[in-house]
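Narrative progress, year one. The postdoctoral researcher (J.K.) led the effort to move from monomer predictions toward full complexes, under supervision of the PI. The following entry was the first complex the group processed end to end, covering 461 residues in total.
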Amino acid sequence: MGFLFESFQHAISLILSFDREVFNTVWTSLYTSTVAILLAAAVGVPFGTFLGLGRFAGRRAVLTLLNTLMALPTVVVGLVLFGLFSRQGPLGSWGFLFTPWAMIAGQMVLATPIVANYTVAAVAGADPRIMTTALTLGASRLRAMRQLLLETRFGIIAAIVAGFGRVIAEVGVAMMLGGNIRGYTRTMTTAIALETSKGEFAFGLALGIVLLTVALVVNLFLNLLQQR
Amino acid sequence: MEPILSIHNLEYRRGDFTLTVENQTFLKGRIYCLTGPNGAGKSTLLHLLALLLEPDRGEILFEGTLLKGAAERQRLRQRITLVEQAPFLFDTTVYDNLAFGLRLRDVGSDLQRRRIAKALQTVGLDGFESRRARALSGGEIRRVALARAMVLRPVVLLLDEPTDGLDRRILPLFERCLTALSDEGVTVIVATHDADQPGRLGGDILRLDGGRPASPAGASAPALSNEPTEKSS
């Protein structure tokens, strides 16, 4: 019990003293996850809107696939992208492996199905009069869709926040594609795994507290949106 | 008066329902009241005239020109406006709701403000610009929706049972707005269940039943013919 208490004290002091190593790691996590989620939103929101509004053959199959992809194991994504980005892989010449960009690519793959699925739910559940009203007021179909997204903005933001929650907490992609390089690709989750195995429990705990705080803020924000 | 919208051999099918209208012309600046029981095809006809639905057969002409292609339909939707039976207001202010269509038409902000203020005054909601649309009552929503359509100065204004459930005290104001628009040259086509409304509006009655033109009450020959009524004072 004494060990846990001392470690917790040490962890808090690391956070409050703005320990450079801790904040470098936090920054890498936030930076890669934010870029990944923005890219996932750029793909997932239009795709989800198309799926939510479209009526075409095979739509149900695409939705089922998307649902399955939501539960993609992070290590599988890491494994596939490792194969693509490794020197012998088809994208090896890009030099992505063990860079933040490889992590961003992997996290984007993880987040896109989540963003798309939540967007489908938001758009399909929206009032059908939104589109009709915009059209009767003279909007083009594209402009009417933009209006639909504006009207369902809380659902869309919730989609993005849920995707962010998934990528900030994942470890498989960051470990396999980033390589856990100190000061470069080390994220909160990979650092926790590494430092704890090295016996630096307090350091891992400090990062764990920050990670939990980020998750808490994300969830509070999500709850706030769902109440609207 | 010149024809603004003409229907020729129109047929629209969905499931068991078929709407068939052989020939009908709507003249500029006139009021038309679509009457008939529920499911007669009034709303479907309005949606076809609003260019939101495409007929399976036949054609709709606007100012004598056949409507072809999505781009032309979208362009003409800027001149034909529909106010739905249960109008939807965007989740923003009343001003932004009214400005939506004006912005699409690149109307400058000064002119926007003037037109919006005038339209709100006409429907008895002056000073409502900054109100949130979601905080309005049902009657206020209908009036804002009418103002939102009026502000666009459409050539044809289509209304789907606009006074259904409206406060009786507001009714005369609402109907005065419609007759004023008609006097300004706007063709107003109103679907209504109110048997007295055509008389009050001085509109031509177009009766539908079972998706087809029907004989006006008391008449023997089936027709979707114009049956002018006396405009009440």
